[in-house]
């Protein structure tokens, strides 16, 4: 990997930023260990502006900056931005359809709500599902993507040139430090700095990427679409961007697309969005800590408005990265291939057989010969259980690294600021996951089953221990994700094992109050089985379409259970909170505005408009 020069001013800005974040988090941790509500929900005192920025900071992290920009560099382009724009609409719905119920019941966790609607078994099942996803997918995914970015950016640096594993541990420990000390309040205040910085940092990258594209001769650029339009060297950055990538600005992809087919925009993509923004503990924990329903609704709508700009500062630079640095992306993929091969060739217990293309063998004759010998040994031993395809192509997840290394002016301090903002975004999301996972274990498992008579300080102590244990677990597991392709796809696809079922159980429970508690249990157990069977038996179905099928099947089964064995009286959600539950009229108007703007954006980036 090419050495990346970091100037003294960049290092100063980088370390000062990180120090400020940790210091603010620790400062806000004072007095937060007195009881579980103060530690896990910031004493239910968060204001709207802190909620809004914290939601964005917890959400936008390495898997967005790295994974989303990487998939934009691939063929998806702006279509990957649907995760952001549809999230804006989702947030508005959550603010006015979900949040009133959640705050009214006074819950600490999302699984806790299922006990109000269904039964204790539903709460426990959801707790287990969310713990697995939070630790096995979200936590490890955030650590890995962040460590991958930092290890490659600082490769060869005498002070910060840690390995992928080293960066995994550093990132995990920074987040665990202030979360364990101060819980949600410390995390939310640290998010205030990190959230603002990541928006500014993304805008800086987008600005210089467009400027670099405008100043680069067309002959040195790689078209991102099969049919680029005519463009001259004198054209500006925006003109070249669209001329080279006309197909990448289309938000509506074909029915057969494996990532975001147009059918997913109608049904499939709404499922992970509603699960993530309305039911995922590491996001909803911020709104459960609202000082009132009005504050929560205003904060959510504020976050929804910010979501509209994310594709322009994350997706657009990813598209440009391919135009500018396609050769570097190909070289990065080759380095990944070689690391994978060398690791297996050096293992006496390898069970991997490599499949290589003819072009790759011609380009790498010595390595191809070693692979042939390796494959023969593994097959002769009779224990080949894994097949890995080695071929050319591009490592799209390296797009962000290349943008930072090659377009930001050296010695200006901007590199240090952008790196600090990126690390801050990574740490912010990681802190949110740690806080959420520790809350669920403490309130839904530890207090419920292991120590029902635990004191308030005992619950806080359990939460702090969980933060440390989960952080260590994530740091151990994260380096193993290097074998996957797109980290963004990894996170989204694996959540399909739980998100359709959980969403179906919540939505059905709010609409149908007569179905018995067993319906919730069946819904939670049925979804992962259905999702696995479809992924195994009909892998050609896009994972978002699989989610949609699972969602409706689970709803249908729960409805049938409700018909067969209805409750004598509908379930009533009783008020169990001291919070003001008055709805915000201003937030409602602003939410309508967000929805209208989102519709306009989809019209602008539709095939009918782009074809003109």
Structure in words:
It is globular, with a radius of gyration of 24 Å. The longest helix has 51 residues, at 164-214. The mean pLDDT is 87. Helix 5 (82-105) packs across helix 11 (270-278), helix 8 packs across helix 18 (414-450) and helix 21 runs parallel beside helix 23. By secondary structure, the protein is mainly alpha-helical. Strands 1-2 form a two-stranded parallel ribbon. The chain folds into two domains: 19-325 and 399-567 and 585-610, Up-down Bundle (Sodium/glucose cotransporter), CATH 1.20.1730.10; 331-393, no CATH class. It contains 25 helices and two strands.
Looking at the structure, what is the overall shape? Answer: globular
Number of domains: 2
Strand content: under 5%
Low-confidence blocks of residues: none
CATH superfamily of the largest domain: Sodium/glucose cotransporter
Helix and strand element order: HHHHHHHHHHHHHHEHHEHHHHHHHHH
The radius of gyration over CA amounts to 24 Å
Give a concise summary:
The protein is mainly alpha-helical. The protein has 2 domains: 19-325 and 399-567 and 585-610, Sodium/glucose cotransporter (Up-down Bundle); 331-393, no CATH class.
List keywords for this structure.
Sodium/glucose cotransporter, mainly alpha, 2 strands, 612 residues, 2 domains, two-stranded parallel ribbon
Give the secondary structure arrangement, pairings included:
Blueprint: H1 8-27, H2 36-41, H3 48-59, H4 62-73, H5 82-105, H6 110-117, H7 120-153, H8 164-214, H9 237-244, H10 262-268, H11 270-278, H12 281-288, H13 293-307, H14 310-345, E1 352-356, H15 358-363, H16 365-381, E2 386-390, H17 399-407, H18 414-450, H19 456-477, H20 487-494, H21 499-511, H22 517-537, H23 543-564, H24 585-604, H25 607-610
Parallel strand pairs: 1-2
């Amino acid at each position: 990997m090419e050495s990346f020069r970091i100037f003294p001013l960049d290092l100063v800005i980088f370390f000062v930023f990180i120090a400020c974040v940790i210091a603010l988090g620790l400062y806000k941790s004072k007095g937060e260990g007195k009881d579980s509500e103060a530690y896990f929900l910031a004493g239910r005192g968060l204001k709207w502006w802190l909620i809004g920025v914290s939601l964005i900071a917890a959400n936008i992290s390495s898997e967005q900056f790295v994974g989303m920009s990487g998939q934009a560099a691939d063929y998806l382009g702006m279509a990957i931005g649907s995760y952001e724009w549809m999230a804006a609409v989702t947030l508005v719905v959550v603010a006015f359809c979900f949040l009133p119920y959640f705050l009214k019941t006074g819950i600490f966790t999302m699984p806790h709500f299922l006990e109000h609607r269904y039964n204790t078994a539903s709460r426990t099942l959801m707790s287990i599902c969310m713990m697995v996803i939070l630790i096995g997918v979200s936590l490890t995914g955030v650590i890995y993507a962040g460590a991958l970015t930092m290890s490659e950016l600082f490769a060869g640096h005498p002070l910060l040139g840690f390995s992928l594993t080293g960066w995994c541990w550093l990132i995990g420990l920074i987040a665990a430090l202030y979360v364990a000390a101060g819980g949600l309040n410390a995390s939310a205040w640290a998010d205030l700095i990190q959230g603002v910085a990541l928006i500014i940092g993304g805008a800086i990258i987008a600005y210089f990427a467009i400027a670099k594209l405008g100043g680069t001769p067309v002959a040195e650029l790689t078209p991102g679409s099969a049919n680029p339009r005519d463009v001259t060297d004198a054209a500006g950055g925006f003109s070249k961007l669209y001329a080279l990538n006309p197909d990448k600005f289309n938000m509506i992809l074909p029915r057969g697309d494996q990532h975001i087919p147009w059918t997913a925009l109608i049904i499939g993509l709404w499922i992970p969005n509603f699960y993530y923004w309305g039911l995922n503990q590491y996001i909803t924990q911020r709104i459960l800590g609202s000082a009132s329903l009005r504050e929560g609704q205003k904060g959510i709508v504020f976050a929804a408005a910010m979501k509209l700009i994310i594709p322009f500062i994350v997706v657009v630079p990813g598209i440009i990265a391919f135009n500018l640095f396609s050769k570097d992306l190909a070289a990065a993929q080759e380095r990944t291939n070689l690391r994978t091969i060398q690791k297996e060739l050096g293992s006496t217990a390898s069970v991997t057989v490599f499949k290589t293309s003819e072009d790759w063998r011609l380009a790498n004759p010595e390595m191809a010969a070693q692979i042939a010998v390796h494959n023969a040994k593994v097959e002769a031993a009779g224990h080949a259980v894994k097949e890995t395809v080695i071929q050319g192509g591009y490592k799209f997840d390296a797009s962000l690294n290349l943008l930072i290394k090659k377009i930001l002016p050296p010695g200006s301090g901007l590199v240090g600021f952008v790196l600090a903002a990126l690390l801050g975004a990574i740490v912010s999301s990681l802190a949110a996951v740690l806080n959420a996972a520790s809350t669920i274990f403490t309130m839904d498992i530890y207090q419920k089953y292991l120590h029902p008579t635990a004191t308030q300080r005992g619950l806080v102590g359990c939460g702090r221990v969980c933060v440390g244990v989960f952080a260590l677990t994530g740091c151990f597991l994260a380096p193993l994700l290097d074998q996957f392709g797109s980290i963004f796809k990894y996170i989204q696809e694996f959540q399909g094992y739980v998100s359709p079922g959980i969403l179906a159980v919540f939505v059905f429970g709010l609409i149908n109050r007569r179905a018995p508690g067993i319906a919730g249990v069946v819904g939670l157990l049925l979804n992962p089985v259905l999702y696995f069977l479809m992924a195994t038996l009909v892998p050609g179905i896009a994972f978002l379409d699989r989610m949609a099928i699972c969602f409706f099947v689970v709803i249908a089964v729960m409805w049938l259970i409700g018909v067969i064995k209805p409750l004598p009286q509908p379930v009533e959600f009783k008020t169990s909170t001291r919070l003001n539950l008055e709805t915000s009229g201003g937030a409602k108007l602003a939410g309508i505005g967000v929805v209208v703007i989102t519709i306009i954006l989809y019209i602008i980036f539709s095939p009918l408009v782009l074809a003109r």
